[in-house]
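Researcher: Quick test of sequence recovery. Tokens follow.
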């Protein structure tokens, strides 16, 4: 990967599109947003693969991320809680949680930051009407 640094932005031309990084979220993605997105994205991709292998059908999945940062000058990410909401019919919440725990253990981004960042993940099954 190659990054071009200017006074206003940091950019990288990636296969999918150009990535723009900035300290001002009106100008690009802030670094902490990219970190949290990497954790959520990796977890979701691994989780989807596990649910697919287990033949768990669902209609929709969303993730809410709660981020806690230090109050010192560094303002580092200390904790990230990812709350998965999975909606569908006849979902087994215990099975969804166990599969999520397996996903977390196999997500390279989560495992790259543990134990520096406390990453927790929970799931909520939302039953859809038939």
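Model:
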């Amino acid at each position: 990967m190659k990054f071009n640094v200017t006074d206003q932005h940091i950019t990288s031309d990636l296969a999918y599109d150009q990535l723009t990084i900035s300290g001002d979220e009106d100008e690009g993605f802030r670094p902490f947003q990219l970190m949290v997105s990497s954790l959520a994205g990796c977890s979701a991709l691994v989780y989807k693969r596990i649910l697919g292998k287990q033949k768990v059908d669902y209609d929709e999945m969303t993730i809410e991320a709660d981020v806690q940062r230090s109050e010192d000058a560094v303002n580092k990410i200390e904790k990230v809680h990812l709350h998965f909401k999975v909606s569908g019919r006849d979902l087994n919440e215990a099975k969804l949680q166990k599969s999520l725990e397996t996903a977390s253990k196999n997500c390279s981004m989560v495992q790259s930051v543990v134990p520096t960042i406390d990453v927790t993940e929970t799931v909520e099954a939302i039953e859809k009407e038939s």
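The first strand starts at residue 4 and ends at 5.
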